[in-house]
Design goal:
The complex is a heterodimer of chains A (113) and B (109).
Chain A lengths: L4 E3 L2 E4 L5 E6 L6 E7 L5 E8 L2 E4 L8 E4 L6 E5 L8 E8 L7 E2 L3 E5 L1
Parallel strand pairs in A: 2-11
Antiparallel strand pairs in A: 1-3, 3-8, 4-5, 4-9, 5-6, 7-8, 9-10, 9-11
Chain B lengths: L3 E4 L2 E5 L4 E7 L3 E9 L5 E7 L2 E5 L2 E6 L4 E6 L8 E9 L5 E3 L3 E6 L1
Parallel strand pairs in B: 2-11
Antiparallel strand pairs in B: 1-3, 3-8, 4-5, 4-9, 6-7, 7-8, 9-10, 9-11
The chains are: A mainly beta (113), B mainly beta (109).
Chain lengths: 113, 109
């Protein structure tokens, strides 16, 4: 019974490139959350998704960032034209329902050169 | 002002001590979560509370909805408890999480 899988574990991009972060929730979980942890800062909520729906994206920057959770396959967090300030650890969590225990992935460490 | 405030920010304890970490929040919530983040970065959910008290091993979490306050207690602390403990609330007026800045706990043998 695999936990929440995130890949890649580490991602290095040059300024202006695109970053695609993937999150496969636990089996049976249809709710996915993305969080960002900037260096020396706490966790910040980015977006909450259910299958094929964005429930709340109030924590996500309006430009360059997008997220999806298709009917089949993992959830994807996409960052276009990355800048140095996007360097952070990006965590994904999943839950069975909207107000249930969270299970976290190991995170993707994004470094923008 | 943050929606979730934690105290203390840093805590050092001797092995065996009883530890309390506090969390106050200012928004209406559906649930409050206590998370543990280890030095390697991995995050584990310890508790999810909407009322009362929960216990798991040496960890106890309580919540007072009227006072908008929660505490995480660790009894008989051990060096392996050293981690960052994070309080997070799921808002009942939106569908998002608010996080405290975390309490960094170091337990010395």
């Amino acid at each position: 019974n695999a936990g929440v899988m995130q890949n890649p574990r580490h991602l290095v991009r040059r300024r202006g490139q695109e970053a695609r972060l993937r999150c496969s929730p636990m089996k049976g979980h249809s709710h996915v959350y993305w969080y960002r942890q900037l260096p020396e800062e706490g966790l910040k909520f980015m977006v909450y998704l259910q299958k094929e729906n964005i429930i709340d994206e109030s924590g996500m920057p309006k430009e360059r960032f997008s997220a999806e959770f298709p009917k089949e396959g993992p959830s994807i967090l996409r960052i276009q034209q990355v800048v140095r300030g996007d360097s952070a650890a990006y965590f994904c969590a999943s839950s069975r329902g909207g107000n249930e225990k969270l299970f976290f992935g190991s995170g993707t460490q994004l470094s923008v050169l | 002002k943050n929606e979730v405030e934690q105290s203390p920010q840093n805590l050092t304890a001797q092995e065996g001590e009883f530890i309390t970490i506090n969390c106050s929040y200012s928004v209406g919530i559906s649930a409050l979560h206590w998370l543990q983040q280890h030095p390697g970065g991995g995050i584990v959910s310890l508790f999810m509370l909407s009322s009362g008290k929960k216990k798991h091993g040496r960890l106890i979490a309580t919540i007072n909805i009227q006072e908008k306050h929660s505490s995480l207690h660790i009894t008989a602390s051990h060096p392996r408890d050293s981690a960052v403990y994070i309080c997070a609330v799921f808002s009942n007026t939106g569908n998002q999480f608010y996080f405290g800045t975390g309490t960094s706990l170091t337990v010395i043998p």
